[in-house]
């Protein structure tokens, strides 16, 4: 037998029987065992057959589990793990990377109780209390402000980031220490009737008034521990590969070394690193592209470089996405451009010509128009037959736009989780029920033949491809509305989108995405079969953990705090 | 508590692509009219500095022999401001370049950061392209938003635009913004604001008409009129209101550091940039002189300025 690609010496063969294995590879669509050697799939089939042909040791650890190719999250961010260093006070229950269930804080009192508990656990009185996930949209007409936080502590600084990360609420102790008071006249610092700041700090210039506390909050998610927590968070939901989309400055050698160093063979996750070229190309895009080409050569089995992320607009729920007529239902102004439309081709060009992979954030349909214009120019000037450039979020992309994407060879990574997390708001506040029913048009993309994946944008919504798949299959809102039944996709299509579909967009489909001989032995290990359960219960399937490069990684034991 | 140093005035300069921001920033760095300016840019690539002027360069900061510095805004604006704060004793003011699609009034909010004070939203407009851009379906609302919330709009490329084009641009601006509209080129003190306590300037004594050639006017720029006045201790709160309302039409910039009778221990800042007037408190009084300086357009009667400055008291 020839030398396996992952090592000089062939390692022992392990055969893992399972209840059922779905390979997502039409050659052998299912089986009851896999054989693994040197971190790669050797074969898939039936146990006896594999043992007869290859020999090796049979490992029964997964004998009652359901195996799929490892899930691939093609749009997430590094702080998916690190954010859990802070106290969660969000409305919806979430589970942290260490397995703890954080119940939703559905009342002001629940938020205060949660923060009091965290306050008690801090020994050093000078250490600020940092929390995240607050979402006042769920308490219309009531005001959560410094008064609630002052009830937690009048001496310790408290900083509570809202779920959108664009706002924070702080207590009086923090404001006193940082000199935020009646004389503060900044626009993002609203005052109450007594002339005192309410404690809400809106947008980054105002949040930055919280000084060192602000910097601790936004800086601590860059630590080694934060990266390791990201790996644990992925493992817990069956994800074996993620894309870190523009969260890391890859021109910073320290960041590159951090990832290469931490992502060794014990790390349960592969990462496609995307450089955030919108804000970090200090010497211009040509120089940045050259640096990314150099960096691509340093890719390992676990960390892939050679990708860049750009952004066209903001978010729909934030009113900052660029929409075509008739714009926002609430009549507010159209959103913001993060790149001038006439400069998009100029900015993409150097990366495209260098053969790098470009993924571009575009939520609104007008943003997609401008982006397609640019890719049309770039592709016409320098045709690259297999570029796989991808539109990220693609939330309002129309059938006509999908046909242009098809013609240009582009991929769509759709933000399907939105139908659950903001579906009711889209129906009633942002765009209205008609356009909401057309959002995140996964069915249309597939019918037109645009390569599809779907994502969580974690930590914006929780990491978890089963939930994303559930959302795309059911399209149900929290209020029980079905948001565009015609855009539903099947379970099989959803499973393909979060494995092979995502792998394709990351240019990793030859290495991951299906259970196929030679590919990395990456599996999602489930307690139930997504193809058997009621599609309405897809998101409830318990995840045991993952296999990454042939090594088993059991998820954190789930605790209910 | 020891008195804090005066905060660094922070002016933002915006405008759509091609409005002339880069040209202006390069000009300010090369010829800052005696002010030591920290210029914050998105991309060093656009900065064109004569090598002989360059004092030192690191990854994020260029230091110039004329006292100016240029910083690239890496991926973290708050951090960049921290870096600039480290230069506070060596610079007079900060200028922030806003991206061509950015909204300057939003970036201006960073002027409230500790150690800084906002000093105007200046937006450049290219008279040759502004009318077509204003009706562009992609960016029309963006360029209108930029000028609508400016304090001072500066029409650039006045050397290539003809009279009709300039008038058309001015007529359009008159419809969409309350900002003061001026034509380039302009002296640094008008664009960015005067140094709040200019050295070597004689002050106009209260109630007195300055004699021509007596040195009471600061000849900072040949055409613009600059006048300063020293105040005798705290001024009355109502006089600020009167002063604000009575502002002569030619005044485009003013800056005062004063005490007010109801807050005699605080440093109150009076500031005019184009159409906006701002009164704020930026810390405890620092034992300096109570003074105000104003700059007016060429041709503004000096007597009107004197009378106006004398309203403070």
Mean pLDDT of chain B: 88
The CATH topology of the largest domain in chain B is given as: Rossmann fold
CATH architecture of the largest domain in chain B: 3-Layer(aba) Sandwich
Biggest interface between protein chains, with counts per chain? A-B, 41 and 33 residues
Beta content of chain A: 15-25%
Query: How much helix is in the residues of chain B?
Result: 10-25%
Tell me, rounded to a whole number, the average pLDDT of chain A: 94
Radius of gyration of chain A: 24 Å
Number of domains of chain B: 2
Q: CATH homologous superfamily name of the largest domain in chain B?
A: P-loop containing nucleotide triphosphate hydrolases
Give the total of domains of chain A: 4
CATH class of the largest domain in chain A: Alpha Beta
Characterize the largest beta sheet of chain A: strand count, sense, and whether it forms a barrel: 8 strands, mixed
Order of helices and strands of chain B: EHEEEEHEHEHHEHEHEHEEEEH
Strands of chain B, total number: 14
Structure report:
The complex is a heterodimer of chains A (561) and B (313). With 561 residues, chain A is of the alpha/beta class. Chain A contains 19 helices and 24 strands. In chain A, the strands form 4 sheets. In chain A, strands 1, 2, 3, 4, 5, 21, 22 and 23 form an 8-stranded mixed beta sheet that branches. In chain A, strands 6-14-15-16-17-18-19-20 form an 8-stranded parallel beta sheet. A 5-stranded mixed beta sheet of chain A has the order 7-10-11-12-13, sandwiched between helices. In chain A, α9 links the parallel β14 and β15. By secondary structure, chain B is of the alpha/beta class. Chain B folds into 2 domains: 185 residues, Rossmann fold (3-Layer(aba) Sandwich); 85 residues, Hypothetical Protein Yjia, Chain: A,domain 2 (2-Layer Sandwich). Helix content of chain B is 23%, strand content 28%. Chain B has a 9-stranded mixed beta sheet, with helices on both faces. In chain B, strands 10-14-11-12-13 form a 5-stranded antiparallel beta sheet. In chain B, β4 and β5 form a beta hairpin. Chains A and B meet through α6, α7 and α12 of A and α2, α5 and β13 of B.
């Amino acid at each position: 037998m020839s030398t396996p690609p992952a090592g000089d010496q062939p390692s022992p063969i392990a055969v893992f029987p399972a209840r059922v294995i779905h390979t997502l590879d039409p050659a052998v669509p299912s089986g009851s065992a896999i054989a693994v050697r040197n971190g790669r799939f050797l074969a898939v089939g039936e146990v006896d057959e594999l043992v007869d042909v290859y020999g090796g040791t049979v490992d029964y650890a997964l004998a009652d589990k359901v195996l799929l190719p490892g899930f691939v999250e093609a749009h997430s961010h590094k702080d998916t793990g690190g954010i859990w260093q802070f106290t969660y006070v969000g409305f919806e229950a979430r589970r942290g990377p260490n397995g703890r269930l954080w119940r939703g804080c559905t009342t002001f009192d629940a938020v205060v109780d949660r923060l009091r508990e965290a306050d008690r656990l801090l020994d050093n009185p000078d250490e600020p209390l940092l929390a995240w996930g607050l979402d006042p949209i769920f308490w219309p007409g009531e005001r959560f402000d410094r008064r609630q936080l002052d009830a937690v502590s009048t001496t310790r600084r408290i900083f509570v980031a809202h779920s959108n990360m664009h706002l924070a609420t702080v207590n009086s102790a923090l404001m006193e220490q940082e000199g935020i008071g009646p004389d503060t006249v900044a626009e993002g610092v609203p005052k109450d009737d007594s002339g005192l700041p309410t404690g809400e700090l809106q947008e980054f210039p105002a949040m930055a008034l919280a000084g060192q506390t602000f910097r601790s909050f936004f800086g601590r998610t860059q630590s080694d521990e934060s990266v390791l927590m990201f790996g644990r968070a992925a493992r817990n939901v069956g994800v074996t590969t993620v894309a870190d989309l523009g969260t890391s400055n890859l021109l910073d050698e320290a960041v590159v070394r951090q990832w290469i160093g931490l992502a060794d063979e014990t790390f349960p996750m592969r990462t496609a690193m995307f450089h955030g070229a919108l804000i970090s190309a200090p010497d211009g895009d040509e120089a940045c592209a050259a640096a990314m080409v150099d960096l691509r050569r340093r890719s390992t089995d676990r960390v892939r470089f050679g990708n860049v992320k750009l952004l066209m607009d903001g978010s729909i729920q934030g009113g900052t996405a660029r929409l075509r007529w008739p714009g926002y239902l609430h009549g507010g102004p159209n959103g913001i451009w993060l790149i001038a439309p006439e400069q998009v081709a100029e900015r993409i060009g150097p990366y495209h010509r260098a053969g790098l992979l470009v993924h571009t954030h575009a939520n609104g349909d007008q943003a997609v128009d401008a982006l397609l214009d640019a890719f049309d120019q770039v592709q016409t000037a320098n045709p690259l037959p297999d570029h796989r450039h991808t539109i990220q979020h693609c939330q309002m992309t129309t059938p006509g736009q999908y046909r242009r994407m098809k013609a240009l060879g582009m991929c769509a990574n759709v933000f399907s989780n939105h139908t659950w997390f903001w579906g009711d708001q889209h129906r009633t506040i942002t765009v209205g029920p008609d356009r909401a029913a057309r959002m995140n048009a996964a069915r249309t993309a597939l019918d037109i033949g645009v390569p599809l994946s779907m994502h969580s944008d974690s930590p914006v919504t929780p990491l978890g491809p089963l939930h994303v798949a559930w959302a795309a299959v059911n399209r149900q809102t929290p209020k029980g509305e079905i948001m565009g039944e015609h855009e539903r996709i099947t379970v099989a299509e959803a499973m393909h989108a979060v494995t092979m579909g995502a792998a394709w967009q990351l240019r990793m489909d030859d290495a991951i995405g299906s259970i196929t001989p030679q590919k990395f032995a990456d599996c999602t290990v489930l307690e139930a079969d997504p193809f058997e359960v009621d599609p309405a219960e897809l998101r409830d399937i318990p995840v045991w953990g993952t296999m990454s490069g042939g090594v088993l990684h059991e998820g954190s034991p789930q605790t209910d705090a | 508590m020891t008195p804090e140093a005066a905060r660094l005035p922070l002016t933002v300069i915006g405008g759509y692509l091609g409005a002339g921001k880069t040209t202006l920033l390069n000009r300010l760095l090369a010829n800052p009219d005696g002010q030591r300016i920290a210029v914050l840019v998105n991309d060093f690539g656009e900065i064109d500095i004569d090598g002989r002027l360059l004092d030192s360069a690191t990854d994020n900061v260029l230091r110039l022999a004329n006292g100016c510095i240029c910083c690239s805004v890496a991926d973290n604006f708050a951090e960049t401001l921290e870096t600039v704060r480290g230069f506070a004793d060596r610079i007079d003011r900060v200028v922030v370049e806003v991206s061509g699609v950015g909204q300057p009034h939003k970036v201006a909010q960073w002027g409230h950061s500790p150690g800084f004070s906002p000093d105007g939203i200046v937006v450049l407009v290219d008279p040759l392209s502004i009318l077509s851009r204003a009706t562009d379906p992609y960016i029309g609302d963006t360029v209108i938003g930029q000028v609508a919330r400016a304090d001072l709009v500066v029409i650039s490329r006045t050397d290539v635009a003809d009279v009709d084009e300039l008038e058309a641009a001015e007529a359009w601006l008159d419809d969409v913004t309350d900002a003061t509209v001026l034509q380039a080129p302009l002296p640094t003190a008008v664009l960015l604001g005067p140094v709040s306590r200019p050295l070597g300037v004689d002050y106009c004594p209260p109630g007195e008409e300055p004699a021509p050639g007596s040195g009471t006017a600061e000849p900072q720029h040949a055409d613009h009129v600059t006048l300063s006045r020293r105040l005798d201790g705290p001024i009355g709160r109502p006089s600020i209101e009167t002063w604000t309302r009575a502002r002569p039409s030619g005044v485009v910039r003013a800056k005062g550091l004063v005490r007010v009778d109801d807050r005699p221990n605080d440093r109150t800042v009076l500031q005019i940039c184009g159409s906006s007037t701002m009164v704020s408190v930026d810390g405890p009084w620092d034992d300096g002189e109570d003074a105000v300086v104003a700059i007016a357009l060429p041709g503004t009667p000096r007597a009107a300025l004197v009378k106006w400055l004398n309203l403070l008291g």
